[in-house]
Amino acid sequence: MTMRTYTTCSAVVLALLLGAALANAAILQQRDVLKTFIEARARANGHVRPDTYAEEDTWADPDSSFKHLPTKCSTPPPGTREADKIAALPGQPPRVNFDQYSGYVTVSEQHGRALFYYFVESPYEAASKPLVLWLNGGPGCSSLGAGAFQELGPFRVNPDGKTLSRNRHAWNNVANILFLESPAGVGFSYSNTSSENYVSGDRRTAVDAYIFLLNWLERFPEYKGRDFFIAGESYSGHYVPQLASVIIALHKFGLTSMNLKGIFVGNPLLDDYKNDKGWLEFLWNHGVMSDEVWGDISAHCSFRGVEGKACGQAKDSFRTGDIDPYNIYAPVCLVSRNGTLYSSSYLAGYDPCIGAHVSVYFNKPEVQKAIHVRTKTEWSECADLLWIYSGDMDDVCPITATRYSVKDLGLAITKPWRPWYTPQSEVGGYAQQYEGGFTFASVRGAGHLVPSFQPKRSLVLFYSFLKGVLPPAFPKVSE
Fold it and tell me: Its GO biological process terms (predicted)?
C-alpha cells in the first residue's frame, strides 16, 4: 500500500493515501472546545504520556480489537434513500444543481444510538466521483454546523440566520461529500441511553462510524466499492486514522464494500507533547511572546513528562490578548451594546460570527423539518458536556507541532520542500513528500479551519490529494 499526506500551514492538513473565540459565550464552537480540552487534559493527567493510557491498547492490535465487528448487514437496515432526500433547504439560493440527503442511521439498537448525516452529491458527474466522509473534531463538535456550513460544504449561512449563499469553492465540486455528526450527543445525533450522550471514547466513536458506514452503504448501494476517502480536521487527527484502522483491519476478514483509498486531515491534534511545545514556539516565532518568556519556558519545561511548578509559572507569565488562536491574524467576533454581532475588521470571504448564524439556522423548526430531524431538538455546534478520551496561523494545532510529529516518523524525503501553485499562479502553500507517498503540505494564509480562510487554495490541495499527485510546482505560464 502506498501512502500520501497533506498538511496545511495556518492550518495543518495531514493526508494518507492508501493504494478569539466568539464573544457570545452561549455559543460553544469547535475553536473553543479543542483548546479547553487540551488544557484540561494536561492538568488532569499531569502530562502523563499518551502511550500510558489503557485505551491505547485498542490501536496497538486493531485486528484483534475489531475482528468481532460485522462486515455486512444480515438484514436491510431501516430507512431509505428516498425518505432522506431533501427537497430544498429553507433559504437556499436558486438553481441548486445537485442532490442533498440527510437523516439518521442507527448504530446501536440496544442503546437506541443513531447518528445524523448530511450528504451532498457532486453537481458534475456524481456517478464517477469518489465518496468522501468528513469528520469534524472538537472533540465533540458538529460536522454539519462547522464542516458543511462554515467550511467546505456547498452553502454558507448568511448573517440573517435565515438564508444561505453558495460556496463557489465547495469540495463537492470534485467529490461526493458525506458529513457525519459523531459521536452520539453531538449536533442532532443522539442515544436513548442518556448517559451515553455525555461520555464517549475514541474506540466507540470509531466503531460507531464504521457501523454507520456499513448501514449507510445499504441505503446508498451505488457507493459500494467506490473510491472512498476519510477527511477531517482538529481532533480528527484521532478520529480519522482510528476509523481507517478499523476499516483496514476488517478488510482482512472479508470486508469489500469500503474501498478506502486514503485519509486527509487538517491541523490535526496528533501528540500532546509536540502540540504543547509547538503552540508555544509558534507564538514566540510570530512575535506574540517575548524572547525572555520563551527562554524561561525552554529552561523550565521538558515537554516530555510531568512538569514542575516552574514550568507552569513560565507558561502563565504572558498573555496573548484578544486574538483568535485559530488564526492569529484574523478578525474576531464582537458583541455590540444592543446585542448584535459584528466582525472586528474585514477579511474577504470570512465571517468570524458565522458560528452564531449557523446555530440560529439549525434551530429553526422549518429547517429541522426539511432535513428530517426529530421534533423538538435543540442543536448546538459542540456538545458542552461531552468528554472524549484517548490514548502558519493556527496556534492551537500549529504547523510547528505537526513538524515535530512528522519528524518522529523518521521517513526519508523523496521530494524536498517546495512551493505549490494555484491555477491563478499564486503560491498556495508548500509541500514535501516522503517515502511511501506520505506528504506534508501547508496552505498559505489559512487558519485552523482551512476551507473557511482559504477556500480556493484548500480545494486545489484537496483535488490534488484525490488524484494522488502533488499540486503544481510552477506557476501557470501566461499565454
Answer: proteolysis
